[in-house]
Every structure is written in structure tokens, then in C-alpha cells.
Amino acid sequence: MTGTIVLQGGGPFVANDALDARILGGLVPPVAGDGADGRVVLLPTADAYEHPDRLVAAALTWGERLGIEVEALMVMRRAEAMEEGAAAVVRDARAVYLVGDQPLHLRSVLKDTPLWGAILDVLERGGVVVASGGSADALCDPMVDPRGGAFTLGLGLVPSLAVITEAETWSPERLHRTLALANTSVAILQTGQALVRTDAGWESVGNPELRGDLP
């Protein structure tokens, strides 16, 4: 896999501007002749039952601020993720941002769908996949179950690592309980912190706390 994976602790389109500008800077303009363009495709899927429109508005303002074209893809249900048209929109993009805080919903919508395959294609082509908050949790395997802090199966894009996101909102008791259940490496990410994986390995942004080794 030749692309870049970014796991952000939280604050999509608000708390990560410097990192976003850096990781996207090499993608715009696109490499000529590979069929992709310089757009960022936004998937607010994990906020389907909350306020995805707010994330879209924040993303458009962020795009104007950073000089990036943003296209919102409002895939909220699994049936929509099975559509080849949605997959084609993602496949033609340089970067994909997954945002929203319901990892269980994101996993159920994306797992084993053409849309998930298109996200993997973006990485294979050297693009960027960014996930923030609960969406970052869902990309890992194991995944922290937000209902109680135990672990469950995630999408597995990043294996052998779990992430605790928006960690500043966790009580010490909840954090201790989850860490006690862990049988894998765990990264504790506050809003504004991130992990970035490229072919060169891992980079920590903002000094997140790590329990165990990064895979």
C-alpha cells in the first residue's frame, strides 16, 4: 500500500489545519495521466444519525481556507455504499475524509462494499485516507466499542492497533477499564493529535500517548 493513512483524534476541519495542509499539499495538483483529480471526498457516514450537514458545512469552510475542493458524498446506508456510482466518485479522488463519531454505523455501512474497495483503491494509487474521531476508531482492528469501551471487530485498514479518540472527553475510570481489556497496542488520541502512516512508517503528531508498539 503506497498511500497515506491519517488517524486524527478529533476536531475534523477545525483542529488539524496544519497537518491537513501538509498531507494534502503533495496531492494538488494531481499527477497527470493517472485519472484522479485533486478533490477531497468527504464521507460523513458515521454521523448519519446526528448532524452530517454540520460536518459538510465545516468541510466547505475548511476547503476555502486551505484552497481545496471538497465534494460531500452523502452515503448514510449500506445500500448506498453498494452502488457503483458512489464508489466511482471516491475512486477518482485524491483524498478521502471519513468523519463522524459512530464507528459501529460506519463499519456496518462500509464493510465488504464497492465503496470500501474504492477507498482502498485511493490508497493503492498513492492517495490519502483521513479519519477523525470515531471514524478513525472504525478503521482499526480491534475497534473500541463506544457502548462500553470494550473491543470489537473494526474495518481492519490498520490491524493490530486500537485508537481511543477524543480522549480528553473520557473519564479516568473509563480509560482505565478499556486499557485493562486491551490485548493489542492502543493509541490514546486527543483532539488535535494524530497518527500518520506512510511507506516510511509511522509519525506521531501532537505527542499522543501510546501503549505498546505501532504495527
Word description of this protein:
The chain is an alpha/beta fold. The radius of gyration is 16 Å and the shape is globular. Strands 3-2-4-5-1-12-13 form a 7-stranded mixed beta sheet. Strands 10-11-14 form a 3-stranded mixed beta sheet. A two-stranded parallel ribbon has the order 6-9. The protein has a domain at 4-135 and 196-208: Rossmann fold. The chain is 33% helix and 23% strand. Mean pLDDT is 92; it is low at 28-36.
Summarize the model shown.
The protein is built from eight helices and 14 strands.
Q: Any descriptors?
A:
alpha/beta; Rossmann fold; seven-stranded mixed sheet; three-stranded mixed sheet; 14 strands
Largest sheet: 7 strands, mixed
Mean pLDDT: 92
Q: Spell out the helices and strands N to C.
A: EHEHEHHEHHEHEEEEEHEEEE
Query: Could you say which structural class the secondary elements and strand pairing correspond to?
Result: alpha/beta
How large is the count of helical segments? 8
Name the CATH homologous superfamily of the domain at 4-135 and 196-208. Answer: Class I glutamine amidotransferase (GATase) domain
Which CATH top level class of the domain at 4-135 and 196-208 fits?
A: Alpha Beta
Tell me the CATH topology of the domain at 4-135 and 196-208: Rossmann fold
**Uncertain segments:** 28-36
List the helices and strands and how they pair.
Blueprint: E1 4-8, H1 17-25, E2 40-43, H2 52-66, E3 70-72, H3 78-81, H4 84-91, E4 95-98, H5 103-110, H6 114-124, E5 128-132, H7 134-139, E6 140-141, E7 143-144, E8 151-152, E9 158-159, E10 161-164, H8 172-181, E11 185-188, E12 194-198, E13 201-205, E14 209-211
Parallel strand pairs: 1-5, 2-3, 2-4, 4-5, 6-9, 10-11
Antiparallel strand pairs: 1-12, 7-8, 11-14, 12-13
Helix pairs in contact: 4-6
